[in-house]
Amino acid sequence: MSTQPAGSPTWMDLGTHDLDGAAAFYGEMFGWSFDDQGEDFGHYNMITNNGAPVGGAMSSLMGPEGPTEEPQNPTAWTVYLHSDDIESTLNKITEQGGKIYYPAMPVGELGSMAIAEDPSGAAFGLWQPNQFDGFEFTGKHGSPVWFEAMVSDFDAALPFYREALGWDAHAMGGDENEEFRYVTNGEDRAATAGLCDASPWGDMPSYWRLYIGVDNTDESLEKLKELGGTVLDGPEDSPFGRLATVQDPQGASFQIIQIQE
């Protein structure tokens, strides 16, 4: 059984209508390599960063019966949370007001996956590892460094992640703040993910977002624009590093943040 804290991000993957374009963009942007796993795995691509697994990618032009002309899903990143017992977790998700999009299914001998939604509407994946635990944090350029759920209904989402996913929730800074409500799964350096009350920013859909570490945020933004990406917000300085919200040429958004020494 994995020693990873319950409900912690363990994998991320990209669904895109242009897999070749995405591979070219992220390869130039972060030095990622895409490796097609073959027909048995629906041509799912494993993404590595200098040999370390960081995520996956698949074509959205693929349905249950094979290739399609229209994308089956929006181009977007999905964050997967760890479960020691995926069936038990799925039961708790429905008990706590969540929804199941795709029930548990085995992925060869690697593990089992499912897709669900929290009560605020944020979709996420579940991963129960067998032979494969998930991504590796390298702390280097192109490594995933943080994950957080931006939710429109914080009061519904917080007990959900505690009860259904087993979060050990702590208010950021140790104190409840009614103006900026943010909790982490775990405390201080042991924290693995965040939950943010996004309601002060207006009416927006709830979603999980991910942060990719870079050596220099401003230089990375210039490269991103050269590669056809878009800067959606920032850059701005934060206590955790200089960050920005960006979008790849196919439309998937993510954050970049400068890795601090």
TrEMBL record:
Species this chain originates from: Kocuria carniphila
Coiled coil ranges: none
Domain VOC residues, every copy: 8-129, 143-259
InterPro entries, sorted: Anthracycline_SecMetBiosynth, Glyas_Bleomycin-R_OHBP_Dase, Glyas_Fos-R_dOase_dom, VOC_core
Domain of life: Bacteria
Pfam family, one: Glyoxalase
Protein name: VOC family protein
